[in-house]
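Researcher: Go.
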Amino acid sequence: MALSLLSLLGLLSMSTILLRPDTAMATATDIHLQEALPSFREAPAFRNSATCSSHAIHVVMPLDTNYIRGTMAAVLSILQHSTCPENVSFHFLSVHLDTEISSLINSTFPYLSFKMYQFDPDRVRGKISKSVRQALDQPLNYARIYMVDILPPSVGRVIYLDSDIIFVDDIAKLWGVDLGGKVLAAPEYCHANFTSYFTDAFWSDRQLASVFIGRRPCYFNTGVMVVDVDQWRKGGYTRKVEDWMAVQKHKRIYQLGSLPPILLVFAGNIKGVEHRWNQHGLGGDNLEGRCRELHPGPISLLHWSGKGKPWLRLDARRPCTVDYLWAPYDLYRSSRVALEE
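Model: Structure:
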């Protein structure tokens, strides 16, 4: 069941002793390099209820060693809150098909249904333009644009998720969204200043700006999307996004990684879903990552988009209040705990 804002705030009130909610995370960097793969505790076994069918829910997530701690927490949250956890099938996109990572997932989630797919960074070589954050410029950040070419033809619909999310509701509810003939569904934020996602060079060029004629474009976050993979393939949308990436290389029309070219193709032409499915921005802005509070209303998914990641802020002992909502799903086994055991 989705958590209400009141319930979430009740949880937070139990963890206020060491909180510094107004402090910027100065020591956490975008890319948290590790000399070796981390160790994780084994997750409990999650089984289907008696009412479950055999209908699969396909989840696509990027998999990177720098964010694997977030991925593990996200997977745990999905399984824990699912009525039919055995129906959830995970598809991990990774630049490197490392057998150690596969073994790590197996040991952490012995009953998990998953496959790993290699994303070739050459697919975006020469196409990526420098953005405001180094993390946004990593090839894997663009894998969502190419996932329809990587997934097997048998997968016709997916939920795409970033690694810095936590579910507090049943993922089957999001899976069941009626796309209404649209290629993708996501929460829309029409109150946001949509013009700010593109440069003056874009808006002053009538030919470029005309792409939104006949559309009411609204911002949506590409870290949580329900995608009709078949329609994406048939419509050639990967090429359409790439075309805008090519324009960006010649004319600086945006500042943020893979988000703007997807907005250029889809904004104003998606199926909007309830905001509860992406309580985003919990990582703060892209430059400083200052703490942010929860938005009012019911919540089904928490998303630490932005610079600040909860595991880094918690490790540095400078967490934001909302990071304590992520902590219960953290399966990370620190070297200190391992020695004590």
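Model: Confidence is low (pLDDT under 50) at residues 13-34, 335-341.
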